Each structure stands twice: as C-alpha cells, then as structure tokens.
Amino acid sequence: MGEIKSFTPVKLICGLIFSDDLIRERAQNILAEKFGPSDFQSQSFLFNFSHYYEQDMGQNLKRCFMSFETLIDPQDLSSIKHQTNKIEQNFKLLFPGLNRPVNLDPGYLKASALIMATTKDFAHRIPLTDGIYAHLELLLTKEKVRTLNWTYPDFYQSAYHNFFLQVRKIYLDQLKRLRAKQEL
Q: Would strands 62-72 and 113-118 be described as parallel, antiparallel, or unpaired?
C-alpha cells in the first residue's frame, strides 16, 4: 500500500478572453485582488480560432494569460472556477452592453502539465467537485510543450507554449525555494 502524501502546490494561471483592453485591465485587477499579485502576463493574442464566443462577447476577441505569485493546492481549482464564474457575472453590471464581457478560464500549471477548469463534461475530463471538471490541456517538459488530441485549437500556438514554458520556469524556481525553506 502506497503512502498518501499531500499534493505538491501548483501555479495558478488564468486565461482571459475579451474584446476591449479596458475589460482586460479591469479583469486582471480584480483577479489580482482575489488571488494575489500576478508574477507573469502574456501579451494579448488574437482569438480567431472559433466563433463560439462572438454572439455573447462581440467580435475581434483577444486572449491573454496571467500567472499568480501565490502557489495553490490543486484541490482548490473547483472553488476558483466558481469564483471566476461569479466575477464574470459581475462584469455584466460593469459593462452592460455585452452579454458576456469577459471569459475567465482558471487552471494550474505543474511541472509536467497544464490543467484547466471547465463546466463542460467530456470523456477525457475528470470530475472534481460542484460541477467542475479538470481538463488536461498540455503536457510540459523542460524545453517542449506537447498538445493532445483534445487540446483547444488556439493552444497549439508557439507563443502560448513560450508563455507556459516561462511560467513553468518561475514555478520550478518557487518549488525549489519552498523545499529549501522546508528543510531548514
């Protein structure tokens, strides 16, 4: 019988889809208030791989990512997804012209993978709690990102891969410091 151990802390990330930089800035500020300071942010990428969000969010959509300084317990992902859904609902009041001003996709990065939270069930998604599923998006190594059969189309971009590899370096450095502190 294997020994049950605590989960290794993971790196919280969040993807944002938006149509206006004012919406992005406001969302990033609210996310930082809720989950702590961001330690790395991507540029804004055109989100033209799907028309899925256009009816609710408008056209000329962009996506960006941010990672957060504070490491989290991976068990918290479901709760975080509920919190980001609530933030999305509140954005309707801040930007009444759009049915969905922002789409927030929280997830976490660990040394070997990027896991995203979703409310949609599918064969490859693992139920967490309270209607939230874990979606294995990417596999990560020191120098490479590997996509999977179900990886979302926009996650095939090398610019995304560069962002996540950079976040992985930050995360591994944080883990090293955390372990050194625990050994004292």
A: unpaired
More confident residue, 59 or 71: 71
Instruction: Please name each of the domains of the chain with its CATH number.
Output: 10-179 (3.30.70)
From residue 151, how far is each of 15, 39, 138 by CA, in Å? 15, 25, 7
Cα(31)–Cα(46) distance, integer angstroms: 21
> Tokens at residue 12, please?
């919280």
Q: What is the pLDDT of residue 135?
A: 96
Q: How confident is the model at residue 66 (pLDDT cuts 50, 70, 90)?
A: very high
What does the block give as tokens for 133?
Answer: 């599923």
Distance CA 120, CA 38 (A): 27
- What's 143's DSSP letter? S
The pLDDT tens digits for 95-146 are 888 899 999 999 999 999 999 999 999 998 999 999 999 999 999 998 899 9
Maximum Cα–Cα distance across the chain? 57
Write the DSSP symbol of residue 20: S
